[in-house]
Design a protein that fits this description.
Length: about 230
Amino acid sequence: MKKIAVAGTGYVGLSLAVLLAQNNDVTAVDIIPEKVEKLNNYISPIQDDYIEKYLAEAKAGTRTLNLKATVDGASAYKEADFIIIAAPTNYDPHKNFFDCSAVESVIKLVLECTADRAEKPTMIIKSTIPVGYTKSVKERFGAENIMFSPEFLRESKALYDNLYPSRIIVGCDEATSEAADIFAGLLKEGALKEDIPVLKMGTTEAEAVKLFANTYLALRVSFFNELDT
């Protein structure tokens, strides 16, 4: 059982928190006290059938979820083995710019509160980021313990998509390769689907895969919207 902190309780963060809380000690971190209070009472702050089902079963005692929530990020990150960063990164199409300030705030706090640790936690960025960002942020912060793992989730079906993923992709380098194997194993352990393919690649390649998938879906939606008009 690993200690895992999840920064952000939107569809990506909360679905992963619930998935991993089946077999690990998970703390969800959010800056909104109302969302934290709801989660600590097993109420989902977002609409997702499977998340709502799993939380309701945990409240009724028919499902084990080692899940709690807090607004105190430092306390959650301080002793975590893995820290999943699922903070929002709003994209401005006019400026072609991702606002990654929330991601970097989490990274800074993690580095501060784990400075005394001999064995550093692994940070996994799950937020949508520009190609080359992970390598850049590792260099800027002087932190080797950061990797990227893209998500391919649908709103309102995020936990279902984590329970039955088509594949798991982890972007890593030599320094994070072993941690990437462990993290992928944790995702597979929480899933219901069997024989899930795991693809390991460089962080830049993984970022490109994510952005390609987003572009493809956007074009597909646009195409079918045009057919309907």
